[in-house]
Amino acid sequence: MYSGMFGITMKNLRVLIPSYNESKTIGAIVKRLKSRGFTVYVVDDGSTDDTASVSDREGAIVIKNKANLGKGASLRRGFERILRDGCDAVLIMDGDDQHDIADITHLLKKMHEGRGADIVVGNRMFDTIGMPRTRIVVNWLLSGLISGITGQYVPDTQCGFRLIKREVLEKVKLESSNFEIESEMIIKGAKAGFRIDSAPVKTVYRNEKSRINPIIDTIRFIALMIKLSFKK
User: For domain 5-229, is the CATH number 1.10.10.10?
Assistant: First the structure.
């Protein structure tokens, strides 16, 4: 279905899924991706359930953290391994089955239309039905701030569904260990001269509790802003 689409083939695209205690959903995600020809990497972030074994059973390449290090640390470790193995682009998805695999087409198309984008971030904000009100407000505020800092309009900076070219990961040094890595990626990518764009994606919201702590993660975001403000 996706082979050769918009210049991306299954040979040079990798899917990276950071996961923590996602044994109930990760198997089905990996299975669907594998059935479409994707090479899938799952970083098991110190899970206490069967996330790693379920992922392995369905054909994913599993990277295990001995302890829970955070989403950012898991992504950085996954990027390092994938770059070493070889790729042209990395697609990031979450392991809770909130992302629709059909939307991968929108991300690929946006990366290769017009002048092309180096980072394509999923945009959930065109349809926020089911999205918790607090998340809508926080996302709107952070996205406005980050868009102003970068000079590039990114309507949903906190979306974890995104496509990134290899060149970005090679040039941009990511340091965050938690959820603020999603903001760091956009800000540092823009500062390095990379073009960022967005593509519409759907999100399936269930009754699960978000792992984002609005207070702690906001503090981390502010700390990131202060840190980046002292860097050229």
Answer: no
